[in-house]
Structure formats: C-alpha cells, structure tokens
C-alpha cells in the first residue's frame, strides 16, 4: 500500500491546508514501489484518462491521496499483468462504481498455464476523402497539394486516418500566418525521424513471442510518442526563447 504524506511543511510543494500534492511529491511517493516512474509517465497517464488531478489557479497539477492510490494501481497492473491502459481504465472505473469485477484474464503465465490472449486492439478510426474535406473545410486542390508534400497520405484502402483532420486543421491555421505547405516538409521529415526512433525502440516488443508483451508494445508506443512530442515542443520553445502554455 502506498503511503501518501499529509499536508504540512514537510511535504515540499504539497498544498498545506487541502492535503493535495504537487506532481514532484507524488513522484517521490510512487518511487518507493516504482523506481522507474517519471513525471512524464504521470503526465502521460493523465492524458490517457487514468487520473484527473485538480488544477491550482496557477495551472499546476494538484493530486489527492485517491489520485496517488489510483496511480499505484495503474502502475501495478501494468507491471504485474501487462494490461493495456484501456483495459486498466475500464477495470478501475468499474471498481470505483462499486461493481464486483474480476481482474481481466490478460497477464503473465500462472501455474504453468498460458494466460488468455490479449483483447484485439481496436481499429483506428477511418474517414473517407469527402468526409476529410468537409471536416477540415478545405478544397480538393488543397488536399492534393498537401498530399504531394507528404503532409497527408491516404491508406491503402483509400481512406484516411482520423488524425488527418487534425493535420489539415493545423496546416490551415499555419497558412493564415503565411506559412505555406511546402514550408512544412521539414516538420514532416522531423516527425518521420522521431517516429522511426520510437519504432526502433518498440520493435523488439512487437516481435516478442509472448502475446502479452506484444500487447504492451501498444502502450509503450503511445508513451514514447507523448514524450517525443513533449520534448519537441520544449526544444522549439527554447529555440524561440518564448514561454508558451
């Protein structure tokens, strides 16, 4: 059981009167059982909807003892059972609703018997060309141009990943500042290199004979992707010498 500190001067940046903790304090609490946990890992789990810390007026995260306990459960289920984050979130939400639920049968081998196969990874959302044009509010000629620069690419089926809508919206927004699609090829090249680095790290997990390890590769890929995006944003801010939210 994780031991969470109470409010007071000995808790660093923990909120003194409310008993809420800063992310640094939470990190120190968790590291007793999970020495490899990082602040970026905690932020990633928040982005995946596993926890919902409060926000101080200054914008800093403030965690309750319940948040820390839930984080401990998440990290324990990842470590001991190789459960995907979606499964962990659904399981913990059911427990908090008071439902009598058993731990999903995805995990390591026990008693010499192979554990159940992990659930199928949901297929990512797909949209058609007309849907993309309508959602992004762009003309066919603009999409053709963006495709010629590799900013957006259809899948083999001819459909598009739903993320293409986000890309199209951002390209449009940058265009309002005079940044043309051809200028964005350098960003696409950098993104491809970053994706290649992540894939290189995760590739051994994807090829592993253990199905639970292969299932774990999905969460590891998302976590590494979140870290690379965060680092990229920090490097851009540093290069520009600006502070952004």
Fold and architecture overview:
The protein is mainly alpha-helical and 245 residues long. It has three domains: 9-96, Multidrug-efflux Transporter Regulator, Chain: A, Domain 2; 121-179, Multidrug-efflux Transporter Regulator, Chain: A, Domain 2, CATH 1.10.1660; 185-245, no CATH class. The chain is 52% helix and 3% strand. It contains nine helices and four strands, in the order H-H-E-E-H-H-E-H-H-E-H-H-H. The strands form two sheets. A two-stranded antiparallel ribbon has the order 1-2. Strand 1 (54-55) and strand 2 (61-62) form a beta hairpin. Helix 8 packs antiparallel against helix 9 (211-240).
Write the SSE topology.
Elements: H1 23-30, H2 39-47, E1 54-55, E2 61-62, H3 65-81, H4 85-96, E3 126-127, H5 129-136, H6 140-148, E4 160-161, H7 163-175, H8 185-206, H9 211-240
